[in-house]
Design goal:
The protein is α+β, with helices and mostly antiparallel strands. It has two domains: about 210 residues, Enolpyruvate transferase domain (UDP-n-acetylglucosamine1-carboxyvinyl-transferase, Chain), CATH 3.65.10.10; about 210 residues, UDP-n-acetylglucosamine1-carboxyvinyl-transferase, Chain (Alpha-beta prism). About 35% of the residues lie in helices and about 25% in strands. The strands form six sheets. It has a four-stranded mixed beta sheet, covered by helices on one side. A four-stranded mixed beta sheet has the order 4-5-3-14, covered by helices on one side. A hairpin with a 5-residue loop joins strand 16 and strand 17. Helix 3 packs parallel to helix 5. It is elongated and about 70 Å long.
Length: about 425
């Protein structure tokens, strides 16, 4: 049974806070601690449940987690041991494949037990092909993947599009292999570039991180990793909109230049006020919003940005027109907004919102993004207390609740066990 969140709206936010790190980047870099025995430190980690799940898996293999205070993680990998790893349906299954090549390099063998529904056949075919190219003997049958090798050898790999996990596996293998490797068709995702930069810090010879084709020369040994993970841009956007919806001034810390550019560009389009503070700080002044009555918006993160813009339009404009090709996939979000008393009409790619007071009710969002922006709606609705299912948001945005409370929001979590009593 999921926990419930009780949200008292109307509070003005204030203060300073960091931004939780990217979930994929956190998982990818945690896997690198298996590639070098020693003491590692990761900063800016994500607070999502998947991180705790991945930590438990690494603990089974002898890794010791020391300081795990918010946003930091100390990992001791000096005692890596063999373990038969079983992954349940609730675990982010593809992340388990990030363990394969590091364990093969360190222990010479690996065995993963996966549920029958874990992966599609074509994906497993690609994994087996990748293992074979790097000199690994592997077989997969009945949900069990077994692989062995004396050492990894360099290879030329051409990757299928659209699977960053395969890119990560190939990069890990090439960094650990004897000789040189060429990887063609590398995923452009930011976590893949971060993986390459982290490997460089560990001593791997990776040319042109972020490129579509990588040349990597394996090394005999790598150094422990100390790395600051980039903030999750979705959570950064949610905190930006939280300040605007509650007409608050907040300072976000440890925001890198690329993330600042994202927020500054969006702020310019919607008439928001942002300024650079001290090094890596971003000051958002929600008192100075001048939202235009019409916005044309194409965005990389429509599942977060567009619902938040609709909430802004409803709050600050008598009538608000939003034009975006990203609206069509959000019909379920629009249905939820309608249940919150939002009045709108949708024609093609154009949404017209007529300002009405929101009337939040008890809702069960189906995705983490829905849960996140519904919390923003609750925080901005003065005088009401709302109850939301907390389990969905924990899958990706669990640190959002903590960060908003650090900025003086009023969000209380009631554990499922407490509520039954």
């Amino acid at each position: 049974m999921y926990d419930d969140l009780y949200i008292s709206g109307g509070a003005e936010l204030e203060g300073r806070s960091g931004v939780p790190g990217s979930l994929p980047e956190t998982i990818y870099l945690m896997s690198l601690t298996l590639m070098a025995r020693g003491q590692h430190r990761l900063g800016g980690i994500s607070g999502a449940d998947e991180v705790s799940d991945f930590q438990h898996i690494l603990e089974k293999m002898g890794l010791i987690f020391g300081d795990t205070r918010r946003y930091f993680m100390d990992i001791d990998s000096r005692q890596i041991k063999a373990a038969a790893l079983t992954f349940k349906d609730t675990y982010p299954l593809k992340g388990s494949f990030l363990l394969v090549f590091p364990l093969l390099h360190t222990l010479g063998q690996v065995a993963l037990y996966l549920p029958d529904t874990a992966t599609k056949p074509w994906f497993m075919d690609e994994v087996l092909n990748l293992l074979n190219l790097f000199g690994v003997r592997a077989r997969y049958s009945g949900g069990r993947l077994e692989a062995k090798c004396r050492y990894l050898k360099g290879a030329k790999v051409r990757l299928p599009p659209g699977e960053p996990i395969l890119s990560a596996m190939a990069i890990q293998a090439a960094a650990l292999a004897r000789g040189s490797s060429e990887i063609i068709g590398v995923s452009p995702r930011s976590e893949i570039a971060a993986l390459c930069r982290a490997l460089q810090k560990m001593g791997a010879l990776v040319e042109s991180p972020g490129a579509a084709t990588l040349s990597i020369t394996g090394v005999d040994a790598m150094a422990p990793l100390e790395y600051q993970i980039a903030p999750d841009n979705r959570q950064l956007l949610l905190l930006f909109f939280a300040a605007l919806l509650t007409e608050s001034t907040v300072t976000l810390q440890d925001v890198p230049a690329a993330a600042k550019e994202l927020i500054v560009a969006l702020a310019g389009e919607i008439g928001a006020s942002v300024a650079a503070g001290a090094t890596d700080e971003l000051i958002i002044d929600g008192h100075k919003l001048s939202l235009p009555a019409a916005t044309f918006m194409e965005t990389r993160y429509p599942e977060v940005t567009l619902p938040a813009l609709i909430l802004l339009g409803n709050r600050f404009c008598h009538q608000y027109r939003l034009v975006s090709t990203g609206l069509w996939p959000l019909r379920s979000e629009l249905t939820i907004l309608k249940r919150l008393n939002l009045q709108y009409t949708l024609e093609g790619n154009e949404l017209l919102v007529r300002s009405t007071p929101l009337a939040p009710t008890e809702l069960l969002p189906k995705t983490p993004a829905q849960a996140a922006w519904l919390i923003l709606a609750a925080c901005s609705a003065a005088g009401d207390s709302k109850k939301y299912n907390g389990g969905i948001i924990d899958r990706r945005f669990s640190a959002l609740e903590i960060t908003l409370n650090r900025l003086r929001a009023h969000i209380r979590r009631l554990k499922a066990e407490e509520e039954r009593q």
